[in-house]
Amino acid sequence: MDNIQNLIAKDLLKIKAVFFRPDEPFTWASGIKSPVYCDNRLTLTAPGVRDDVENSLAQVIRENYPEVQVLMGTSTAGIAHAAITAHIMGLPMGYVRSGAKDHGRQNQIEGRLEPGQKVVVVEDLISTGGSVIEVVNVLREAGADVIGIVSIFTYGMQKGIDRLAEAKVKNISLTNFDCIAEVAASEGYIRPEDVERLIKFRNDPSDESWIGE
Q1: Phi-psi region of 104 (alpha: psi -120 to 50; beta: other; left: phi over 0)
Q2: CB of 68 within 8 A of CB of 161?
Q3: CA 61: distance to chain centroid?
Q4: Which strands form 109-110's sheet, in the order they lie side by side?
Q5: Cα separation of 82 and 150, whole Å?
Q6: Is residue 148 left, alpha or beta, with left meaning phi > 0 and alpha meaning psi from -120 to 50?
Q7: Are 212 and 43 in contact (CB under 8 A)?
Q8: What is the chain's Cα-based Rg?
């Protein structure tokens, strides 16, 4: 798993899907200042990185959820990754909308899902865990046996860890904030002394004391 973590960390940094700017923080919609920008959708337009991501997702699923029967992507960022990974694994896939359609059959779950089927949810990014847990709950309400989540990247924020534990669902990410910060320092994207600042942000995003250090 360490090899996958480092490979995906290098890939995401290379294409700026994860981009660190500790001296010029980004501002989230909530107003929180962040030293990191994440857009894993960029992996889809970088074929080499995309291959690494999808093959790694398939490997992680095979190793950790061998009984899986269906992959379900989160809307919208997880859909493409679920589709490509399902193709590699020869599995059916579908996705969960953020809300039920207001027309047609008014589906929220797209794709065939039978009660009792063992499902792995595919997500691109986990921060506080709220959106992916909503997907898990929708699937469980439909009778699915959600055996776990896979994601490309996780911040490892305590709120997200607590929410996943409360929902009794396991997530396995290809790489994580700590790994990417270390790789970014070793590859020259940031200064080695910035790593501690980044971890301070990760531990408490509302504490802006890392800015200007």
Answers
A1: left
A2: no
A3: 14
A4: 109-110, 93-96, 70-74, 118-126, 145-154, 171-176
A5: 10
A6: left
A7: no
A8: 17
Check: CB of residue 197 under 8 Å from CB of residue 210: yes
In tens, the pLDDT along 93-125 reads 999 998 654 443 557 999 999 999 999 999 999
Helices (H) and strands (E) in the chain, counts: 7, 10
Q: Can you read off the two tokens belonging to residue 118?
A: 């063992």
**CA proximity to 43, closest of 32, 35, 51, 31:** 51
- The pLDDT assigned to 106 comes to 57
- The answer to whether 134 and 123 have CB atoms below 8 angstroms apart is no
The overall average pLDDT reported for the chain is 93
First and final C-alpha spacing in the chain: 33
204: Cβ contacts below 8 Å, ≥ 6 apart: none
CA–CA separation, 158 and 200 (whole Å): 12
Q: Which two tokens stand for residue 65?
A: 């959820």
Record the tokens describing residue 172, joined without a space: 């396995």
Distance CA(143)–CA(175), nearest Å, equals 30
CA distance 23 to 15: 20
